[in-house]
Amino acid sequence: MSISVHPLLGVGSVSPGDDLGTLIAAALAPIEPRLQPSDVLVVCQKIVSKAEGRVVDLATVTPGPQAVEFAKGHEKDAALVELALAEATEVLRMGSGHLITATGPGFICANAGIDRSNQNREGEVTLLPVDADASARRLRAALAERLGVELGVLVSDTFGRPWRLGQLDFAIGAAGLEVLDDHAGRADWRGRRLEHTLIAVADQLAAAAGLVMGKADGVPAALIRGYAYRAGNSGAATLVRPRDEDLFR
Amino acid sequence: MSISVHPLLGVGSVSPGDDLGTLIAAALAPIEPRLQPSDVLVVCQKIVSKAEGRVVDLATVTPGPQAVEFAKGHEKDAALVELALAEATEVLRMGSGHLITATGPGFICANAGIDRSNQNREGEVTLLPVDADASARRLRAALAERLGVELGVLVSDTFGRPWRLGQLDFAIGAAGLEVLDDHAGRADWRGRRLEHTLIAVADQLAAAAGLVMGKADGVPAALIRGYAYRAGNSGAATLVRPRDEDLFR
Q1: Nearest CB to B167 within list A1, A197, A215
Q2: Which of A213, B122, B213, B233 is the most exposed place for a label (fewest CB within 10 A)?
């Protein structure tokens, strides 16, 4: 079965208080009659955060001494560092210009996911949604109401990762589809039982969506068609490896 | 621009000495007239390793004391552990049933990438290709000769990762396309210069291919169409984060 990944055009600028369901439903209108429950909508974190008012003007932030000290010499904005420290549930690494934190349910990324690209106004930044799984569930319900179809919905963000260069889109919110697919017990092509095969489906889908959602292009969402996902609502928070099972924390 | 991801069916069983170019070219035949240089072929490591003879019968391996000790109590196969230790350039973690190693140009994964699923004979395992970038370049050249089109070619493997549960496909070999896309200097939609935006394109493509290449299905390759990759031959080895820049080794 082939899969297709379509950039969602025409969402336009999103501001605090905007109804994301209305904006996305309008952008989906050209293909509305053909929408299927098996379609997965991937929405970038930035427009979710903007609609939810998770926008901060750095000019309103007074950095504390730790942020000022770290920002100094690393061409960092001390106000952004201050915000990142406030958003972080844990600081994993802080040094050599890098601030790697856990945030939300335990997502690990640079600067607590705070980003200043594609903002509506100079000096503004977006924080991650407070609960991106809840954001995904709300958007799914809003789209079901407007379009009459219950899609799979993911909220994605672009993170770096250890060991490998480059950034990639990951799922930070999910609704309607299971984020992990456990192949344990299934057979391979020789009939041999597969062991330890737990596929991070939501991250695969987010990465695929990333191919059409380039940061420079201002494409804030994508529709993936033809992927037979497993229905469920465990949420992207379940993708966080429990701390005591993580060998690299 | 939309992207499509197609499972490559009909490759069949691959054995040491088989000519992978011939097998893949035959599987591509149904769409051959429509093949474009912008198409990216993603081939799973396993059939590359098999064709290159990187197959070992565990019965021929005599585990040393370290492998025996580790395997004991973790329901591990001591011969597989022995092989993984021999393939590893570095052992990052060894304990609680986990053996996380660097291998090849520095790819970090469990058991040096040795896997026993989808093998031709019980007791056999495949090792990673000696140089998966060279494998990708050879396959690209062979397909160009047979099909008259120079495709982008990736070799992918399914790895776990720290911090997040679940496995995902990553690029371990690449030919014809740049694995990283540097957005630094480009402008976002407001004209703001993007900083630190280096996208791991090859891993995005490998993850997208993974959506149609499930381990249980025996689909060993996929064709991704419509992605405007940047031509180049830096190779997937350049995705390895230099050791002295890695905060989590």
Answers
A1: A197
A2: B122
The single-letter code of the amino acid at A208 is A
Instruction: State the Cα–Cα distance between residues A185 and B79, nearest whole angstrom.
Output: 23
Q: Do A164 and B186 touch (CB under 8 A)?
A: no
Q: CB of B207 within 8 Å of any CB in chain A?
A: yes
Alpha-carbon distances, residue B244 vs A96, A163, B108, B239, B247 (angstroms): 12, 11, 15, 14, 8
Q: Is B228 part of the contact surface with chain A (CB cutoff 8 Å)?
A: no
The model's pLDDT over B83-103, given as tens digits with 9 standing for 90+, comes to 999 999 999 999 888 999 999
Give the strand pairing for A55-57 and A124-126. Answer: antiparallel
Q: Which pLDDT does position A237 carry in this prediction?
A: 98
Q: Which residue of chain B is at minimal alpha-carbon distance from A95?
A: B247
Architecture of domain A4-54+129-243: 2-Layer Sandwich (3.30)
The second-level CATH assignment, the architecture, of A58-124 is Alpha-Beta Complex (3.90)
d(C-alpha B202, C-alpha A84), whole Å: 29
**What is the ipTM, given to two decimal places?**
0.95
Q: Is some CB atom of chain A closer than 8 A to the CB atom of B94?
A: no
Distance, in angstroms, between B131 CA and closest chain A CA?
Answer: 17
B31 CB within 8 Å of a chain A CB: no
In CATH terms, the fold of domain B4-54+129-244 is: 60s Ribosomal Protein L30; Chain: A; (3.30.1330)
Provide the CB-side half-sphere exposure for A41 (13 A, CA).
34
pLDDT tens digits, one per residue of A152-201: 999 999 999 999 999 999 999 999 999 999 877 677 666 666 666 899 99
- B74 shares contact with chain A (CB less than 8 Å): no
pLDDT digits (tens, 9 = 90+) for B148-190: 999 999 999 999 999 999 999 999 999 999 999 987 767 766 6
